[in-house]
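Here is one chain, start to finish.
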Amino acid sequence: MTAVHGPDGIDFSLRCDGCGLLLRGLGAALHRWDLAWSVLRRHGWIGARSTGGPHGCPRCVRSGTSTVHEDLPDRQT
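Its structure:
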């Protein structure tokens, strides 16, 4: 699972399945996964819309090292 819940059960982070880059504090700033994912997609993240991923960060996408495919279905599970 690439969306990681914080110890408080409310906050969450997102981890790149390629390099392990971790974006912390998304729940505190954006409150909901669907809103966070919508913003992150606009900033170059790729992957499935579900919290389980897989997800790839812009750095891995640009360098060609991402194992995540951009053509994954954009669906919520």
